[in-house]
Amino acid sequence: MAARRLVTAWAAGVGAFVLFLVGAVVPRGAAAVPPNAPSQAQATTAAQVERGAYLARVGNCAGCHTVRGGAAYAGGRGIETPFGTVYAGNLTPDTSTGIGAWTSADLWRALHHGRSRDGRLLYPAFPYPNYTQITREDSDALYAYLRSLPAVQQASPEHALRFPYNTQLALAVWRVLFFAPGQALPDPARSAEWNRGAYLVNGLGHCAACHTPRNLLGAGRRGLALGGARLPGQGWYAPALDRPDEAGVAQWPLEDVIALLRTGVAPQGAVSGPMADVVFRSTQHLTDADARAMAVYLQSLPQRRPAPLPVASPAASALQRGGKVYEQHCAQCHGNQGQGKPDAFPPLAGNRAVLQADTTNLLRVVLQGGYLPATAGHPRPHGMPPFRHVLGDEDVAAVLSFVRNAWGNRAPGVGTIDAYRAREASGL
Q1: What average pLDDT score do residues 384-401 get?
Q2: Are 49 and 144 in contact (CB under 8 A)?
Q3: Beta strands in 252-380 (DSSP E)
Q4: What is the pTM of this model?
């Protein structure tokens, strides 16, 4: 009898909680518009449209909201997540499939609160946990720019998510646990330049969306912001921005950090994979002041220094095999001693991208090729051809094991099974 009362009480409690959550996801229409929303009658100026265009580039909105070869901002691109595929929406001012019926307050609600025009909760593949920091002024400028685009009638596919992740109730639970609307609060102890960089990196630029590891429910892990993460469905690793052995830049000259953001190339390294697309679409367009602000902020990040792990030497047979593969396919560009060629091919000796613990990107570059972005500051970059049709998994593993242990390099070897999994994961 006591057990039955306990179960009844538990069920009533769960039922009340579910009713509370259901109330949180019911479309709320105009009631959900922030009370401080400016009047929709405000005039749109050419300067506001121009500023919105710049902000859209800084936020790389087209990167997710444009299908390869399709109309800009017309949506339809699939974003892979551990829970299924989320398709980006149409941001053009088409009234039936885009945001033609949206007000500036509707866009602000999407960015700041993570709710669509009709009150539905949005999936955080749209990075509103970062965009919530965007100011209302910037949101209105983005709206003015998007409204200036040609209208494209193109409906986005339905999201392909597994149950229960495809429900509004699941989203409501996720938000209770992991999301609250916020704003970028300037740090009075820091310079205006640093605060601008923090706003760009953490808010509009949403760097944490890729560079922060996530928990089992897809939320950024607390205390590990910008700490490095594998990108689901892409076969790439976004290296940690707070570790000198990965992508930390605290010890770089400031001008080199700016060069990497603006051109994709610096004396210490170059970008490839998804980051090459970010530089091409977004950061190369930064103003001098904003590029410098981002660099200042990134250099200020406290650096984590993991304890060194013991390194077991790869088998001599693997190193010998890898040396032969390197001599035949790699030495012509990267040099017999892994020294590279200035302004052309990066050195491999002492290269932290070669030595970092996670070999995801190394495997992907060998299999798929490495291509730098063509930017205004570096319009004709050299590239590395793909070797997926030339080298088998054993040769890929052997040459990477060799490179990671030659010319003073010292790092764990790469296994054949790692090469096989990388090929399978990337569909190559």
Answers
A1: 96
A2: yes
A3: 265-266, 269-270, 370-371
A4: 0.87
